[in-house]
Specification:
The chain is an all-alpha fold and 153 residues long. It has 7 helices and no strands.
């Protein structure tokens, strides 16, 4: 990002590196076999803090996307919408990985109920973002085919 706080094509990179570094730290901990539920919650907090630290034009929040300054930046830099999707999908994928092993335990033990909610929400988000991404690249013939399939259902 430029010093002016305005987005550039490379604005995503520092956040992509942070996501990758948190993933590396997680991997080291998993392979050390010293993993506890407290570690999972700690990494959850770190990934959520990363989302909160995103500049306004990268935050995956529909309300923020309607702000005039964000709309103006996106009109000038259409790649920002894809950058938002990339960050949001990457963080949610990591949240799903963090919580998936404890997801089922949450049905029987209240201590792990948070993991159940996070894993399910992250999976839904990933599916939604992936669908949005696919539709963004949909050709006219893809659109016609999809609509015909939807009518058959």
């Amino acid at each position: 990002m430029k010093d002016s706080g305005r987005p550039t094509i490379n604005s995503l990179m520092p956040f992509a590196y942070q996501i990758a570094d948190l993933g590396r730290q997680w991997s080291v901990l998993v392979h050390s076999r010293m993993l506890t539920y407290a570690h999972i919650l700690d990494f959850d907090t770190k990934f959520r803090a990363l989302l909160s630290s995103l500049p306004i034009f990268l935050r995956p929040d529909p309300t923020l996307e309607q702000l005039p300054e964000v709309r103006q930046e996106q009109a000038q830099r259409p790649y920002l919408a894809m950058h938002r999707l990339i960050v949001f999908e990457a963080v949610n994928q990591r949240l799903l990985v963090l919580h998936r092993d404890d997801m089922c335990r949450g049905h029987h033990d209240e201590k792990f109920a948070y993991s159940t909610r996070v894993a399910v929400d992250a999976a839904r988000t990933i599916l939604s973002v992936s669908n949005t991404h696919l539709r963004a690249h949909e050709t006219e013939s893809d659109l016609v085919s999809r609509r015909l399939l939807e009518k058959k259902r």
